């Protein structure tokens, strides 16, 4: 699985968009980009994933660059409850990845401030 | 409500004692996972199971054991051979038929005194 690089921490004002970057320059053609978040002392929560097209769901949007070497998770209107560690994970689809394992890095600690 | 439960939320044990952490899911998921998290770090995979009566070691299996006798349950035993057992332990499950996310339980914080 390709390695990812994320900034260790970011701040965002409540109500504004939070844009969380992730670099994955060694990503291969069959690897997806997944985002999870972990609120303090809780289990991680899936947010979104994508292969090469931009994706949007009720929680967030995922923008993947054309060369797929980086991506950005966008929380359009951040709230205080979005304060968490956000993990960007690159891996092949579970059917190709033995056991569907996830490899978590250290993530980005997002602090949403009033 | 469907979901994953882990109990207890906090667990204290004396050094040298084995301890078993519970993980139950009613999501009818085939695959289940155990992760360990240390302060300020990401999650590391201990063991995983794709079907009943089958499991594989993850990246840090030494000092741990698991069983998968029922689809709903995947208990983790932290043995006395685990040198640094104090950590936050997370269980997860996934529907193998879909290429989607893992669902995580609330975690158990184990402290060995």
Explain this structure.
The complex is a heterodimer of chains A (114) and B (113). Chain A is mainly beta and 114 residues long. Chain A contains no helices and nine strands. The termini of chain A are far apart. The mean pLDDT of chain A is 91. Chain B is mainly beta and 113 residues long. In chain B, strand 5 (43-51) and strand 6 form a beta hairpin. Chain B is globular, with a radius of gyration of 13 Å. Chain A binds chain B through residues 32, 34, 36, 41-46, 49, 87, 93-95, 98-107, and chain B through 4, 31, 33, 35, 40-45, 48, 50, 56, 58, 88, 90, 92, 94, 96, 99-107, 109.
List keywords for this structure.
heterodimer, A: 114 residues, mainly beta, 4-stranded antiparallel beta sheet, B: 113 residues, 7-stranded mixed beta sheet
Topology record:
The complex is a heterodimer of chains A (114) and B (113).
Chain A: E1 9-13, E2 18-23, E3 31-38, E4 45-50, E5 55-56, E6 61-64, E7 70-75, E8 84-92, E9 108-113
Parallel strand pairs in A: 1-9
Antiparallel strand pairs in A: 2-7, 3-4, 3-8, 5-6, 6-7, 8-9
Chain B: E1 4-7, E2 10-13, E3 19-25, E4 31-37, E5 43-51, E6 54-57, E7 64-66, E8 76-78, E9 87-94, E10 103-104, E11 108-112
Parallel strand pairs in B: 2-11
Antiparallel strand pairs in B: 1-3, 3-8, 4-5, 4-9, 5-6, 7-8, 9-10, 9-11
């Amino acid at each position: 699985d390709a390695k990812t690089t994320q900034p260790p921490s970011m701040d965002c004002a409540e109500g504004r968009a939070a844009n969380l970057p992730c670099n994955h320059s060694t990503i291969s053609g069959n690897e997806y980009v997944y985002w999870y978040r972990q609120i303090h002392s809780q289990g991680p929560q899936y947010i979104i994933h994508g292969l090469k097209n931009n994706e949007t769901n009720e929680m967030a949007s995922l923008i993947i660059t054309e060369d797929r070497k980086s991506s950005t998770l966008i929380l359009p209107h951040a709230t205080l409850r979005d304060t968490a560690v956000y993990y960007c994970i690159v891996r092949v689809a579970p059917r190709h990845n033995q056991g569907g394992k996830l490899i978590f890095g250290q993530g980005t600690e997002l602090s949403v401030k009033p | 409500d469907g979901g994953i439960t882990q109990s207890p939320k906090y667990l204290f044990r004396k050094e040298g004692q084995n301890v078993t952490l519970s993980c139950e899911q009613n999501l009818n998921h085939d695959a289940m996972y155990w992760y360990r998290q240390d302060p300020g770090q990401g999650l590391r995979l201990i063991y995983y199971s794709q079907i009943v009566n089958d499991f594989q070691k993850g990246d840090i299996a030494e000092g741990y054991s698991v069983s998968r006798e029922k689809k709903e349950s995947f208990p983790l035993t932290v043995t006395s051979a685990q040198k640094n057992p104090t950590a936050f332990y997370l269980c997860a499950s996934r529907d193998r038929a879909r290429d989607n996310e893992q669902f995580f339980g609330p975690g158990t914080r184990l402290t060995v005194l």
